[in-house]
Amino acid sequence: MVSMDLSASITLLLTISCCLWNTESRTYSSVLSVPNGSSWGEWGPISFCSSGYANAFSLKVEKDNWTLDNTGLNGIRLYCDDGTEIESRVGPWGTWTRNLFCNKSYLVSYSLRVEPRKGILDDTAVNNIKFKCSDGVGRRGFGTTLGKFGPWSQSCQSNGICGMRTRMEDAQGLGDDTALNDVVFYCC
Ligand SMILES: [Ca+2]
Ligand SMILES: [Ca+2]
């Protein structure tokens, strides 16, 4: 009787481990990054499409607010062909711009538009992002125009982007806010 209870507990434990792992992770083949991200803030959680790949995105953008503290890009949302929408850390400013889609293909590469550090002046860090679709066509987000685009990331060698993680600086109170500072994407 004791040994039956034990084996039932082990089975239950294995079942829980299996399912928690499934909701939080996914087997991926590579991680895409770029060298020009900024380094303020903390990395958020990794978010994966439940089973498919990202074929569209939208950006949370704070337009120039004519004050001395702008933040530019505040969030990235990916739309997966399995119907899921995923985000990692998202900043509090700005509004979501309209979606940009790949034509019967998936997102496979990206480049970040980043403003270099301004010292005592107003920093914004990342201002925009552009993607390449697996059909070779580019899609530039509706971000802001400060800074310049850096080099393209590697491209997914597998189907396409299936996950993401953003680095976000929390609100600085009266200090200089920058919101989104960097992002990496996962290929499956
Ligand atoms: Ca700022
Ligand atoms: Ca500053």
UniProtKB/TrEMBL annotation:
InterPro entries: VOMI, VOMI_sf. The keyword Signal applies. Keywords: Signal. It holds the Pfam family VOMI. It comes from the Eukaryota. Residues 1-25 form the signal peptide. Transmembrane segments: none annotated. PANTHER family: VITELLINE MEMBRANE OUTER LAYER PROTEIN 1 HOMOLOG, VITELLINE MEMBRANE OUTER LAYER PROTEIN I-RELATED. This is Vitelline membrane outer layer protein 1-like. The lineage of its organism: Eukaryota, Metazoa, Chordata, Craniata, Vertebrata.
